[in-house]
Amino acid sequence: PVPVFHRARLTHSLAANGPREHYLRARWDSDDNGRLIVRAFGDQDSSLISVFTAANALIRLLPYAPALEEDAVVDILMLGRT
Questions:
Q1: Alpha helices per DSSP H over the chain
Q2: What's this model's pTM, rounded to 2 decimal places?
């Protein structure tokens, strides 16, 4: 199946990305207006299984994506059942 990406607003800023596409473990929710919001976990170390189990989304950062400020819109891939 083809992955379905959704658009969500960041609840915090993110640093610029390097030359590879990255997927950050994150948690999405809805704000008071029903808009999708998302927050990446601070520690993205691949050995932290607990962070992956708490994640319900992945934020997609394209290669060389610029730094993003709070409220910027990003692509997210929702995990599990939503």
A1: 49-54
A2: 0.87
